[in-house]
Amino acid sequence: MTLKQATVQSSARCSNRCSELIAVMREQERLCARLLELSRGEREAMLAGSVDLLENVTRDKSDLIAEMDRLEQKRRGVAVQLAREVGLPTEISLLALAARVGGNEAEELLDTRHRVAQSVARLRETNEGNIQLMRKSLETVRDSIRQLRRATGTGNSYTWSGQPRLSAAGTLAVDCHA
């Protein structure tokens, strides 16, 4: 095999590996978009007080997050292989990798990287809003419990097993002051 033939084969492998990396990142972008939809649905479920819908959305998000983790492992593996093929250390940034690959593939890599980063930022923003909503909801529940305790004069209207606590007279503790 001549040097020219070896260079062509190496370039073809690099091109295939680069295409594979781009495909994995596009799939990550697609999953991020789906996670964003689910996070928005999660917010709607919380606002509507729909526990069943929230449970379904949470399960779907969990499945997608597992898939994202699998894709990220794959992306890293393909990036390491590509780095080796172009003679770079395996612990290298996507920016440095794109610079070495060059051409249209580098541009496509960087564009895809940018879109994935934007998707992740939108997802983070939506999730932070959901966290704030959950915290406010939790504080509302805590306030309601404190008010109920003050109104009934009891520290807790339920036993450790979840059964209503009865007063000494045999009535429910919440009925004592009615």
Give an overview of the whole structure.
This protein is an all-alpha fold. The protein is 78% helix and 0% strand. It is built from 4 helices and no strands. The chain has helices spanning 3-48, 51-85, 94-101, 103-152. Helix 1 packs antiparallel against helix 2 (51-85). The longest helix has 50 residues, at 103-152. The protein is elongated. The model is unreliable at 1-10 (pLDDT under 50).
What overall form do the CA principal axes indicate?
elongated
* SSE string, helices as H and strands as E: HHHH
Measured between the Cα atoms of the first and last residue, the distance is: 95 Å
Instruction: Report the C-alpha radius of gyration, rounded.
Output: 27 Å
Please provide the count of β strands. Answer: 0
State the main characteristics.
178 residues, mainly alpha, 4 helices, 0% strand, elongated, disordered N terminus
